[in-house]
Write a structure and sequence with these properties.
The structure is a single chain. By secondary structure, the protein is mainly alpha-helical. Among the domains are: 2-181, no CATH class; 408-488, no CATH class. It contains 26 helices and six strands. It has helices at 2-14, 17-42, 46-54, 57-90, 113-116, 128-131, 133-138, 141-156, 159-163, 186-204, 211-220, 224-230, 247-256, 260-263, 268-292, 302-317, 325-338, 350-358, 362-369, 373-379, 384-413, 422-428, 430-436, 444-453, 460-477, 479-488; strands at residues 97-101, 122-126, 171-174, 295-299, 415-416, 419-420. The strands form two sheets. It has a four-stranded parallel sheet with strand order 3-2-1-4. The chain has a two-stranded antiparallel sheet with strand order 5-6. Helix 5 (113-116) links the parallel strand 1 and strand 2 (122-126). The longest helix has 34 residues, at 57-90. The protein is globular and about 85 Å long. The chain starts with a helix and ends in a 16-residue tail after the last helix.
């Protein structure tokens, strides 16, 4: 055991997390940098570019043969250093890590670090190429090209946050190691089956002794009608939160998303069984990774969040808890606010997040966000709405107090030594402005103002100005000041609707 940890420390020193991230992004850039630069210039998104490539037969024929070679290189890289990257975060005992899950990768139309990076030390994102292993192995070429291009472009959005030289990166991309190991997903399968059993008991209001009995029951539901007639709790049936049709229509819509080669002769019940299991397996995968990295789960997708909530409910029944409840509430609240009351939270630029870290502002902002949250959670741990509302109030109050400090300072800037200098500056013109900045060059306008209005002594002005300027700079550089600056920036640009005609 001792030798294991000695070897572990040796490898961590040999391969820093920053080096691992830089090498990973270099591999991705080697294939996607020209396309990424074109995408950025044209102001379109990864989905649009990937759709363009995957709908062009010539481009598909050109790209598809390259995918396997790229994926193999990525797999080889992670098999060598993936564990080491995880160890760095496992051992970062003072860090608060956020672990993304519930989907292949964060949405292409926003940077998830913008909202999570004001709370987490490091946001852990999954390598989407590894997570899409099944897609690349089983799908037709157009689908493979779509995800290949989309993943490459989405990944590069996070390069600056992952590769800036900090003690711990704001973003770290790491693989799901179980996808690279023989029998690596066995534990996820076992846990997913256990939760599927509980969930099915809720849906059908029936007791199943084990997975085998449950599988036989699902197999017997050989028509959609029979499946629907056996359902007792429709509130536990969910394919997609955006689908509002009948059960039959939603089921058919879900079935149409599945690869035709896996459907075969399986019954509607078996399809439904597979759907529940895959959702529960995803939730377990996220919780396992969060526990491994001592992190807090982060889920953007509403459907995944609902299944995750059911998973948490079933864990509570079994007295299982592997995550920070406070962190879970705060990160869920930040995600909700970015789509509702405070959209600017989802648009904080990378340079602002980096500045927050360099100014060591994160801990103070985290304290502001978490004020009185714990007490609310203790009262009702499943009420994410009330903690979101408290989070909104915490942010709003801190920004309001900051605005007041700025307003007070502005008032002080217009008075020196008890004198109202508004009209004085008007009479003194540019020369007074020069005095305020400490520039030793004053003209006739200043003399006239001095004679007419008895302004403060000139020697007092530069020093007073410097004092106020220093206070102003301190307010601006404070943690809340940095957050205030981010909230006031204009991030209203929208993606273009027109897809460029050429990206090759």
């Amino acid at each position: 055991m001792i030798s294991h940890f000695e070897e572990r420390d040796k490898l961590k020193k040999q391969f820093s997390l920053n080096e691992i991230q830089n090498t990973y992004f270099q591999i991705v850039e080697n294939s996607f940098k020209p396309i990424f630069e074109k995408m950025t210039k044209e102001k379109v998104n990864a989905h649009q570019v990937a759709s363009f490539y995957s709908s062009n037969d010539a481009l598909i024929r050109n790209i598809a043969p390259q995918i396997n070679r790229f994926i193999n290189n990525i797999y080889d890289f992670w098999r060598n250093v993936g564990d080491i990257g995880c160890w760095h975060l496992e051992d970062s005992l003072d860090n608060l890590n956020g672990v993304y899950g519930g989907d292949l990768f964060p949405s292409y139309n926003e940077n998830i670090a913008s909202k999570c990076g004001i709370y987490t030390d490091t946001l852990v994102l999954p390598d989407p190429f590894v997570r899409s292993k099944y897609v690349f192995e089983t799908s037709e070429d157009s689908t493979r090209v779509y995800y290949f291009v989309k993943h490459g472009l989405n990944v590069l959005k996070y390069k600056e946050l992952a590769c800036t030289d900090l003690i711990y990166p704001i973003v770290a991309i790491l693989p799901d190691m179980q996808n690279l190991e023989d029998n690596g997903r066995d534990i996820i399968r076992v846990l997913g089956q256990a939760d599927t059993l509980i969930h099915a008991q809720k849906i059908f209001d029936a007791n199943f002794d084990d997975e085998e009995e449950l599988a036989d029951f699902f197999k017997s539901l050989d028509t959609i009608e029979k499946l629907e007639n056996n359902i007792r709790r429709k509130d536990r049936v969910l394919f997609d939160t955006d689908w509002n049709c009948s059960f039959k229509d939603n089921f058919r819509r879900y079935k149409d998303t599945l690869p035709k080669n896996i459907l075969g002769n399986i019954t509607p019940g078996e399809i439904f069984h597979s759907h529940i299991f895959s959702r529960m397996a995803i939730s377990n995968e996220l919780l396992l990774k969060s526990r491994q990295l001592a992190g807090v789960p982060i889920i953007e997708a509403p459907t995944s969040w609902q299944y995750f909530n059911w998973k948490l409910e079933y864990d509570a029944l079994r007295a299982e808890n592997h995550y920070s409840v406070d962190g879970l509430h705060i990160l869920k609240g930040l995600n909700d606010l970015s789509h509702t009351d405070m959209p600017w939270i989802g648009n904080i630029p990378s340079e602002s997040l980096i500045e927050l870290r360099k100014q060591d502002a994160l801990h103070e902002i985290r304290d502001i966000l978490g004020d009185s949250i714990h007490e609310l959670i203790e009262t009702n741990p499943s009420n994410f709405n009330i903690t979101r509302d408290k989070l909104l109030k915490n942010i709003d109050n801190s920004l309001s107090m900051h605005r007041k400090k700025i307003d007070d300072l502005r008032q002080r800037k217009w008075r020196f030594a008890g004198h109202d200098i508004g009209s004085w500056i008007v009479m003194g013109g540019i020369e007074i402005a020069a005095a305020l900045t400490g520039t030793p060059s004053w003209g006739l306008g200043l003399i006239a103002a001095n004679q007419a209005l008895d302004p403060p002594k000139l020697k007092e002005i530069p020093e007073t100005y410097r004092e106020i300027s220093a206070e102003s700079e301190a307010i601006k550089k404070s943690p809340v000041g940095l957050l205030f600056k981010a909230s006031n920036n204009n991030f209203s640009a929208h993606d273009k609707k027109i897809i460029p005609t050429r990206f090759s």
